[in-house]
Amino acid sequence: MSNEQARQVLQQGIAAARAGQTAQARQLLQEAARRDPRSEAAWLWLSSLAKDNAERTFCLKKVLEINPNNENALKGLRAMGVISGTEAPSAPPPSIPLPDDRKLSEVLDRLDPILQNYQPIPQANLPVQWVRKRGGRAGEGGSGILVLACDPQ
Question: b/e per residue, 97-128, with b = 16+ CB within 10 A?
Answer without folding.
Answer: eeeeeeeeeeeeeeeeeeeeeeeeeeeeeeee
